Amino acid sequence: MTSHTTVDYNRTTALVVVDVQNDFADPNGSLYVDGGEDVVRVVNTEIARARNAGAYVVYTADWHPETTPHFARDGGIWPVHCVGDSWGAAFHPNLIVDGPVVRKGTAGEDGYSGFSVRDPETGEVSPTGLASQLDRWGIKAIVVCGLATDYCVKATALDGATAGYDVTVLTDAIRAVNLESGDGDQALAEMADAGCLLTE
Ligand code: VGL
Ligand code: ZN
What we know:
Elements: E1 13-18, H1 22-25, H2 38-52, E2 56-62, E3 101-104, E4 116-118, E5 125-127, H3 130-137, E6 141-147, H4 149-162, E7 166-175, H5 183-193, E8 197-199
Parallel strand pairs: 1-2, 1-6, 2-3, 6-7, 7-8
Antiparallel strand pairs: 4-5
Bound molecules: pyrazine-2-carboxylic acid and zinc ion.
Pyrazine-2-carboxylic acid (VGL) binds next to α4.
């Protein structure tokens, strides 16, 4: 295992832990991301480092109603996953949870980015509480880790860069769905092109 290039956490940096939930991180999860369980230990180490430096840690959670156009059976592309209050929506049991949680998709939207959700029918985009939370804390830089590289990690990192935060992505603390092979690598390239710093 490689170790991180160390991120210097401080009070204007927040660690954003994306969707480390059973459906993505447990091999029995309905949208299991290959190697998803392996990020938990790395993410926990990062959470401890951030907290020790006095940095904020904030968590996102995919949180869907039972029926949503996000799911294949209702016209979308995904197997049923992260239905609110189900086992699959719960954080991986080994994840250290030590900070506020931002739920996304709760009203049936596609919630890829931690910053915003999008109504799949009207295309309307609305903010989650994440940016206002970060701004209340005076955050200038975010460090992104979790699942999945080619969906929620990418969307969160790109939105963060667009919103003007300095964005670092911890490449050994993320894993890709790879619906098409190469999606994960392409996501890394897109994040780098958007000015995100990719670090191991
Ligand atoms: C995600 C697919 C569907 C993710 C969420 O957390 O990356 N991917 N919903
Ligand atoms: Zn989802």
